[in-house]
UniProtKB/TrEMBL annotation:
<dbReference type="Pfam" id="PF00089">
    <property type="entry name" value="Trypsin"/>
</dbReference>
<dbReference type="GO" id="GO:0005615">
    <property type="term" value="C:extracellular space"/>
</dbReference>
<dbReference type="InterPro" id="IPR043504">
    <property type="entry name" value="Peptidase_S1_PA_chymotrypsin"/>
</dbReference>
<keyword id="KW-0645">Protease</keyword>
<dbReference type="InterPro" id="IPR050127">
    <property type="entry name" value="Serine_Proteases_S1"/>
</dbReference>
<feature type="domain" description="Peptidase S1">
    <location>
        <begin position="1"/>
        <end position="61"/>
    </location>
</feature>
<protein>
    <submittedName>
        <fullName>Unannotated protein</fullName>
    </submittedName>
</protein>
<keyword id="KW-0378">Hydrolase</keyword>
<dbReference type="GO" id="GO:0006508">
    <property type="term" value="P:proteolysis"/>
</dbReference>
<dbReference type="InterPro" id="IPR001254">
    <property type="entry name" value="Trypsin_dom"/>
</dbReference>
<dbReference type="Pfam" id="PF00041">
    <property type="entry name" value="fn3"/>
</dbReference>
<dbReference type="InterPro" id="IPR013783">
    <property type="entry name" value="Ig-like_fold"/>
</dbReference>
<feature type="domain" description="Fibronectin type-III">
    <location>
        <begin position="66"/>
        <end position="155"/>
    </location>
</feature>
<dbReference type="InterPro" id="IPR009003">
    <property type="entry name" value="Peptidase_S1_PA"/>
</dbReference>
<dbReference type="GO" id="GO:0004252">
    <property type="term" value="F:serine-type endopeptidase activity"/>
</dbReference>
<dbReference type="InterPro" id="IPR033116">
    <property type="entry name" value="TRYPSIN_SER"/>
</dbReference>
<dbReference type="InterPro" id="IPR036116">
    <property type="entry name" value="FN3_sf"/>
</dbReference>
Amino acid sequence: MPGGGIDTCQGDSGGPFVVDVNGLPVLAGLTSTGSECASAQLPGVYTRLTTYLPWIRSLSDVPVAAPGTPTGVVATSSAGKTVVSWTAPAEAGSASTTWTVTAAPGGQTCQTSGAQCSVAGLKLGTEASFTVQGRNGFGAGPASAPSTPALVVSGAAAPGARVATKTIGAWSGLKGSGAVKAKAGAGGTCKVAGAAVVMVKAGLCTVNVSRGKAKAQAVILVG
């Protein structure tokens, strides 16, 4: 700088040269050399990083932009889990992008670096839709369009099917080990028959299960 006082100092070689890009700090270069310490009329010398960016990216994952918009968001609910999958955009930004899935209503989330994750804590027997948004070192990208609403259930079976109470216990997330006791809810969609639950007609079958002091509930889509 002509007046001095703002620049690199001798011994700063290799230090970062950071610029502000729309409020985001960006590493633009590295200090090569300086004369004394920010002396007037003796500007520091810097190396521009973009010259070496292809080489750097061949050795390390460096984001070059915020992630694009995910597409094809699909939710599938079964076996006590609601799994959401999607297609990452071509301009994902970097392999280190973190994807966040958000449920509506409720706001429950899950995160992954892959292309699917399981959302927990959803209310059984209700519908939920999901959006996906990516974030990397450049910031957050745009959120996807909401998925088609998915019915949150513990599992699914056809009318006439017999589902073991042990299986329903697993769907519900029932803790412990040993025999599972089951009690079907009102409505006649299903009924308990020994160590199984029989699916009587199409609809939602609610089953309360227990094992010792542990209790849980399963909602099964019959159809």
